[in-house]
C-alpha cells in the first residue's frame, strides 16, 4: 500500500489541536492519563525540525526559503517513518508559492480539513494572539493572499478552505468544529474509521468514548492551568471551546464585516 502524509489541515483556531489531542491519546496513550506531550506524536509540519532533516546547516542559513523544500522534506519523512508516524498538522494553504508546491498527490495519503464558523474563529484567534478584535478582524478578513511567517504561509479563512477543497487527487474528509462539539461520538468516530482504512488501528467504539471522556474541555483547561501548554501565545490556549460566544462579543459591525467577506462560503457550510 502507498505510504504518504496524513494531513490534519485547517485555518488556525478551528479545532486542529482538539483533534490532535484526541488522536494522540487514542493512538498512543497507554496509561489513560491526559498528557500534552503526546501531541508531539502528531507534530506541526511547518517547523524548523522538519526542514533541518533536509538542510543540516539550517540554523546558520538566515536566507532559508522553506517552500522550496516542502516536497523534499515530505519525501524524507515518508522514507524514514512508519505510516502511523506520518500524521502532521498544518495551517498552510494547499497550492503553490512562487511555483513551488506545498504538497502533492504523491506525498499525500489523505487529508482531513477542519473548519469553524469564522465569527467564532475571530474571537478565539484574537484571544490567542493577544490583539484587539478590530486588529484581528482586519488581519482575518484581509485580501493579502500570502502571509509568510517563518516556515509557513497563511491565507485568509475562506481562501484556506477553498484551497484544500481544490485538492481532489486524494481521499479527504471535511469536518466542522461544531460537529466535534455537538456530535462527538459520530464525528470523531468518522475520523477513526477513515484512519483505520490506512493504518494499523481498530475502530473501537468504547475506546472512542473513553478517549473523549479523557480529553473533555474542562480536563484540558485544568491541565493547562497546572502545567501550561507550550503552543499558547497569549493567555489560555483552551479558552472556552464554545461555538457561539461570538454573539456576546462581536459588535454588529464586526459581524457584518465577517459575513460580507465570507458570506458565500458561510452559506455553503450552513453558517448563515
Characterization of the model:
- There is one protein chain.
- The chain has 272 residues and is α/β, with parallel strands linked by helices.
- It has one domain: 3-Layer(aba) Sandwich (Rossmann fold), CATH 3.40.50.300.
- Helix content is 42%, strand content 12%.
- The strands form 3 sheets. The protein has a 4-stranded parallel sheet, with helices on both faces.
- A hairpin with a 2-residue loop joins strand 3 and strand 4 (100-101).
- The longest helix has 17 residues, at 252-268.
- 34% of the residues are buried.
- The mean pLDDT is 85.
Q: Which terms summarize this structure?
A:
272 residues, alpha/beta, Rossmann fold, 4-stranded parallel sheet, two-stranded antiparallel ribbon, 42% helix
**The CATH C-level class name:** Alpha Beta
The profile of the biggest β sheet is: 4 strands, parallel
CATH topology: Rossmann fold
> CATH homologous superfamily?
P-loop containing nucleotide triphosphate hydrolases
Radius of gyration: 18 Å
Give the overall shape.
Answer: globular
Give the termini distance in whole angstroms. 42 Å
Give the overall average pLDDT. 85
With helices defined by DSSP (H or I, 4 residues minimum), what is the helix count?
Answer: 11
* Spatial strand sequence of the major β-sheet: 2-1-5-8
The run of helices and strands is: EHHHEEEEHHEEHEHHHHH
Helical content class: 40-55%
The count of strands amounts to: 8
Our estimate of the beta-strand percent is 5-15%
Low-confidence stretches: none
Number of domains: 1
